[in-house]
Each structure stands twice: as structure tokens, then as C-alpha cells.
Amino acid sequence: MSDHKEAKSFSRFGYIMVAAGAAIGLGNIWKFPYLAYGDGGGAFVLIYIVICILLGHPIVQAEQAVGRRGRASAAASYGVIYPKWRFVGVINIVCTFLIDIYYLVVSGWVLKYFVTYVVSGDFGKDKQAYFDDYISSTTQPLIHSLVIIAIIVFFLFFGITNIVEKASKVIMPMLAVLLLVCGIYALIVVPGAVDGLKRHGVDDTDISVAWVPGAFEIPLVPDFSKFGMQQFADACMQVCFSVGIGWGIFTTLGASMDKDANLKADAWWVDICDTFIALLAGFVIIPTVVGTGSEMSSGP
Q1: Alpha helices in 158-213 (DSSP H)
Q2: What DSSP line would sit under 27-86, residue for residue?
Q3: Are 185 and 284 in contact (CB under 8 A)?
């Protein structure tokens, strides 16, 4: 985007879907469930939501405001407000570039598994060996990452307020429906999956068991006995990672916001969508992992 070019504005719903799509990713689907599972369960979720309100929302709103005021790239928008602050936008861009390198690799993994699932659904008897053989290949991960880059370039070539907005209006609602369906499917089909939604060692009749999506084996009253400064730091980092603040995302998107857009309300919708998908992901991931006897932890 040119530093001075007036950008086409998003529709209200389109902006929320694009912004939510930019925020929702590995932090929601991959990291949030295992952190919530191991860091005091309900205590982690509660503190996460509080931090999202106190930290995530105001920074999303501020970044949107910077972008809308600058109507330019992330770096140039900060420079419009104050020339010496341009370096802040540069840091955002560098941060996003480094993170995207990691994202491209993992997205390549997802593409590989998706294609295999559609073609044959056969991942072999030893699932760990299948994964290890794939990532140790010198060509396969690279090829799949290049395909992901090509797809991204295709979408961005037409501009974020054109094909990206149109696609996000369809893809993001579909993601929520897909996660809900996968969660219900896991509870019905995967043996022992229901155990992932209740606390181990507690009788089913115990009223302290939380039978809600994303319950993470926790009592209704959050267990703060497992929650300390490390878990608080995890929650803070998770908000930054999951919502995507400090990456220049919302500064860039803000440059295409309508001048009359409600920055505060739109920032709330981004946070709500992001947290909702994280909880839905827990509803899918934890029952599936627990039901299949796998370890609920970080890592591939």
C-alpha cells in the first residue's frame, strides 16, 4: 500500500471477519487448549479473558486508530502521527515477518495432512513415524510451504478489501461451524472423548464438574492452586500471540477502515471472535487428545 494512497474501505461485517481471521490462528487452535488444560484450567481461562479485556482490546483499538489516521503501511502510519515513531511500525513488520516464517512451515504441514486425508486418509500405523518421516524430508515440507505462499500471493494480489474480504465473510463463519461439528463428532465417535470435558477422578454426579465446551477438565470454581506467576505470564503472552497485537496487523487493516467506523466496538468484536474460537478449539482438541490416549502438551 502506498504511503499516501487512499484505500478502499471495508464493509463493517467484512472488516470484522478479516480482522478476526488475521487474529485467529495457531494461538487459538494449537496453543490455547494445552495451556488452558495444564495451567489451572478455569483459572487460566478466567485470567486470560481479564487480560484480553485490559490489554488486548485497548491495543487493538489503538492500532486500528493509528492505521486509520495514517492511511498507509504500518511503518508509515506511525510516521504520520509522529515522524520519530516510524521505527515502531518497522518493528511490527519485522516481528510479523519472523512469525510468518514459522506459520508458513506449519501451514505446509496442515496442507500435507489435508491432501493425504482427502486422497487416502492413510497415515500409517505409527502416526509419530509418519510425521517424523515427513518433516525430515528435504523437499516435501518446502514444496507444501511454497504452495501456501502461492495461495497467499494470489489472495493479496487483488487487495485485502476485495477478494480477502469476500473470502473471509464465508471462511470465518464456516470455521466456527466446522469446529462445532468436529467437537460433537469427537464426543460421539472417539472412545473416552467425554472424559476430556470433565475432571479426572471425579464422579460424574459431582456438581463441580464443568460440562461446557472447552471445560478443560476443570471444576466450575477455577483451580488457582495450579496458577502462579508463570501461568499469569503464559496468559499475557497468549493474549499477545492469539489476538495478534504488536504485529502491525490492525494498523494495516485500520488503513482501510471507514472514517466513521466505531473503533471501540470493532475491537471488541475482534476480541470476542478470537476468544470464542479458542474456546471452541478446546472443545475439539482436548476431548480428541484425551479420548485417543495422547498427551495433552505442547509440540507437534
Answers
A1: 165-189
A2: IIIIIHHHHHHHTTTHHHHHHHHHHIIIIIHHHHHHHHHHHHHH-S-HHHHHHHH-GGGH
A3: no
Q: How many residues does the chain have?
A: 300
Closest residue by Cα to residue 219 from 239, 193, 194, 201: 201
In single-letter form, the type of residue at position 61 comes to Q
Q: CA-CA distance, 207 to 285, in Å (whole number)?
A: 24
Q: Alpha carbon of 89 to those of 1, 55, 56, 248: distances in Å?
A: 14, 19, 18, 7
- β-bridge partners, 219: 209
Quote the cell numbers at residue 72: 498507509
Instruction: Report d(CA 71, CA 111) in Å as an integer.
Output: 35
Amino acid at 230: Q
- Please give the model's pTM, rounded to 2 decimal places: 0.80
pLDDT tens-digit series, residues 232-260: 898 999 999 999 999 999 999 999 888 88
Residue corresponding to grid cell 489476538? 243
Cell of 59: 491495543
First to last CA, the chain: 36
Query: Who's near 237: CB < 8 A, 6+ residues apart?
Result: none
Tens-place pLDDT, residues 62-107: 999 999 999 988 999 999 999 999 999 999 999 999 999 989 999 9
- Whether 201 shows a pLDDT value over 70: the answer reads no
